[in-house]
Specification:
six-stranded antiparallel sheet, mainly beta, Immunoglobulin-like, 253 residues, 44% strand
Length: 253
């Protein structure tokens, strides 16, 4: 009987999550056939599969290393997608090893393979896959513990760069973000591509915002219950307003 242990994942942490920019060390204990350990020469296949659950309640996806794409696990049939190969070091207590790096890996469309977590998702896990030559027996391990990724920049009080999970050469957003001492956003400048132009938003934690729309409109929204105050002279064209009684808008003449 072929025995494969549950993979172990060891990672540098950002809070409770794995650091997106740092390698995650994957280890698997010796693979046993009827109690005897097997090395690579005794196996016709050995590797691991990465699984992704994008949101609560969704079925997991599996990474196909040949096509560099995520596929629905529920739609996967034999033959299985291509596994990611494991290395082997006989001298180690956990001789089978691999490396997962959240940042930098891309799918066939050039998008990131892994994403940082928002509200706890996506989460990822790993299962090891071995096929013994002599017994023609295959075994898929139990899943590893789940991990989610957070960027090391998430622990900084200032963030400057592209939008979440975007690379600079393909960015649709640019942002400057300031956080308080417990990492809550308190002020933000966000530029979002909206072809042929862009929307520019300046907002803060109180709910006040100024938005420059792609069509040239400017929208000023104070925090609930707060006024817009202009200190100094105001020169304007036509003024349209809503009366206090909530009736139809009127033009001030």
């Amino acid at each position: 009987m072929l025995t494969v242990a549950k993979p172990q994942l060891n990672a540098d942490k950002v809070g409770a999550n794995a650091a997106y920019e740092k390698p995650v060390d994957l280890r698997v204990a010796p693979v046993l056939l009827d109690g005897a350990p097997l090395g690579p020469d005794a196996l016709s296949a050995f590797g691991y599969f990465v699984y992704r659950q994008a949101a609560p309640g969704l079925s997991p996806d599996i990474w196909d290393d040949a096509t560099k794409s995520w596929k629905s696990e529920s739609a996967t049939v034999v033959p299985r997608p291509a596994a990611v190969q494991l290395g082997y070091s006989a001298a180690d207590a956990q001789p089978w090893r691999g490396i997962i790096v959240g940042a930098g890996s891309k799918d066939s469309d050039g998008k990131p393979q892994f994403a940082t977590a928002s509200n706890g998702y996506p989460i990822y896990s790993v299962r090891a896959w071995f096929v013994a030559k002599s017994a023609d027996e295959a075994m898929l391990s139990a899943p590893s513990d789940n991990i989610a990724f957070s960027s090391v920049t998430d622990s900084n009080l200032v963030a400057i760069g592209a939008g979440d999970n975007e690379q600079p050469d393909q960015a649709t957003q640019a942002r400057v973000l300031l956080k308080d001492s417990v990492l809550r956003p308190i002020g933000r400048l966000l530029i979002e591509r909206d072809s042929p132009g862009a929307a520019v938003t300046l907002d803060n934690a109180s709910g006040a915002s100024v938005v420059l729309h792609p069509d040239g409109r400017i929208e000023i929204t104070p925090a609930p219950g707060r006024p817009v105050v202009i200190v100094g002279d105001l020169e304007t064209g036509r003024v349209t307003y809503t009366p206090a009684d909530g009736s139809a808008k009127k033009v001030l003449v």
